[in-house]
Amino acid sequence: MENSWQNPKMRRMVWIVAALFVVVVVIGQVAKTSTSKPPAMPQLAADISPDVHERLTQAWPKVLTACPGLAKYYRELRFERIDMAFPDPTGAYHANFVFSVSDGKSSIPTEFMAFGQTCYFGVSSDGAGLLVPKSGCQSLCLDRVVPHAGNDLTLPLR
User: Fold this and answer.
1) Which of 22, 45, 125, 127 has its CA 20 to 30 A from that of 4?
2) Kind and range of the H or E run holding 81
């Protein structure tokens, strides 16, 4: 009696089934990542002024585009509040989205050195720029390691 694995037709059918399985898994992963919606803007406190609320609402999708890591790791961050920062040269205030990064187990790479940090993502008074002060938070924002240089990261919001 011949072993079914030695039968060329059976061997070919097993390889075809395995290849189809791999294709289905890959297509499923691609569909899952391409259909995931960006995170919704955090719920803002009622005492936020209407102009700041509007500025942040307009800026949120642009912040997620400028900071791909913020969108990627959003579920692992905890929104704390909106802080109004010191005035810029025009006398207007940056509005900061303030998030805390857990110091527990997370998929955020340890090389980012963001664990336990409080991250500020400051939207400029005209809504055209983003300011991220800490290097760990900058790494989280850009989804790549940013060497500590002591400088704020400034990104355009388009």
Assistant:
1) 22
2) strand 77-87
Nearest CA to 138 out of 127, 147, 126 is that of: 147
- CB atoms near residue 136 (< 10 Å): 21
pTM of the model: 0.72
In the structure encoding, which two tokens stand for residue 8, read together?
């060329």
Question: Distance between CA 79 and CA 71 in Å, rounded?
Answer: 13
Please write down the long-range contacts of 143-152, taking CB distance under 8 Å and 24 or more positions apart: 143/68, 143/69, 143/72, 143/73, 144/69, 145/109, 145/111, 145/112
- Per-residue pLDDT of the chain (158 residues), as tens digits, is 556 667 778 778 887 887 788 878 777 776 555 446 667 878 788 888 888 889 899 999 999 999 999 999 999 999 999 888 777 666 667 889 999 998 877 889 989 999 999 999 999 888 899 999 999 999 999 999 988 777 888 899 98
The alpha helices in 49-152, defined as continuous H runs, are 50-66, 68-72, 135-142
Determine the 3-state secondary structure of 82 from DSSP: strand
